[in-house]
Amino acid sequence: MSEDPLFDPADFRIPPGVTHVCAGGQSPFLHRHDEVLLRYAADKSSGMAGRAEQDALVERIRMHVASAWTVQAPAIGFVSNVAEGVAMVAESLDWRAGDTVAVDAVEYPSVVAPFARRPGVTLRIAQGTDPDRMANVIDRSTRVIATSYVSYLTGERVRLGRLRQLADEVDALLVVDFTQAAGCMPIDASIADFAFSACYKWMLGMTGVAIAYWNRRRQPDWAPRSAGWYSLVPGTRGWDPPPDLRPDAMRFTRGNPAHAAVYVLDSALSYLAQVPPQAVQAHVQALSGALLEALAARQVTCLTPHDPLRHAANVCLAHEKAGAIAEALHARGVYAWNGQGRVRFSFHGYNTMGDVGRITDALDAVLREV
């Protein structure tokens, strides 16, 4: 297993001879998306008939995402990016004096900043690498536990079941960013009160649209503080009384969703549906596990836990010359991701065990030079 790709690399804009392990930053674009963008252009130019096609596509994608995330379609909406979705949740809460938000010290900024910028809200920041470290900063003052399922910085996969338990013990919201897992790992969004994901990484889409999930069973009365024409009940006219919000998660979507990105997402989801998410998980974890072992044998410092229950498709190595390493790897045909003092290798279905060998061969040369 993992000697052969799950997805044909020729389906993607991957230059010949390149090992592309950037899915955690930007995955390569599918060739099939070219035709889809032309279809968007045609529909946009077709008057009301084209608009009907756009609306039907939005509803179809909601069903596809809901199936992939093990929830119902009414729970799925769209935002422009994860930061917008988290901010809408942060703005919607009636904050009380002394309220706190529990986050990890290396959490992604889009998950933390919307809370950090709220007047009167205190962040409680978990430090270290203990899998249960968040428990140290959660108490009766905690209103929100905000977390990525998989860390963008270290590649660590958190125990969402444990965080759900901690949230329930103190009546806190659990807000989850699935960006570094959606498209390569099975997702059950119902564990969260709210969840989000960008679509331009393992989901094989593009920037401009992100998934928003609202757990209506856990938070039946939730409503955002702001609205736009798209998030109101269709056909609304007049402002006295104020119009109602849409009854489902499309209340997240205040204006038109980015339709070009939505068309591409539809194409991407259809492509991903060829392979069950469990098979993609097994494939990418075989590759990430093999790279972790190879780096350990070379005594290269990794930020990513070796336990397969605690990582996904990312392998992150820390180095003071991470930028120079990433540039040198790129020159050798290994496209990795740089930033925050680490180099990140992110596997997807188009990668194989041969890519692991090419990464280690290139690293051996690069680490001797930097």
Report the strand count: 12
Q: Give helix % range.
A: 25-40%
CATH topology-level name of the largest domain? Aspartate Aminotransferase, domain 2
Order of H and E elements? EHHEHEHEEHEEEHHEHEEEH
Number of helices: 9
Largest beta-sheet details: 7 strands, mixed
What does this entry look like structurally?
The protein is α/β, with parallel strands linked by helices and 370 residues long. It has 2 domains: 9-31 and 276-369, Aspartate Aminotransferase, domain 1; 34-272, Aspartate Aminotransferase, domain 2. 34% of the residues lie in helices and 14% in strands. It is built from 9 helices and 12 strands. The strands form 3 sheets. A 7-stranded mixed beta sheet has the order 2-8-7-6-5-3-4, sandwiched between helices. The chain starts with 18 loop residues before the first strand and ends with a helix.
Observed structural traits:
370 residues; seven-stranded mixed β-sheet; three-stranded antiparallel β-sheet; globular; alpha/beta; 9 helices; Aspartate Aminotransferase, domain 1; Aspartate Aminotransferase, domain 2; 2 domains
Topology:
Blueprint: E1 19-20, H1 32-44, H2 47-68, E2 76-79, H3 82-92, E3 100-104, H4 109-116, E4 122-126, E5 142-148, H5 160-170, E6 173-177, E7 194-198, E8 210-214, H6 259-272, H7 277-297, E9 314-318, H8 322-331, E10 334-335, E11 337-339, E12 342-346, H9 353-369
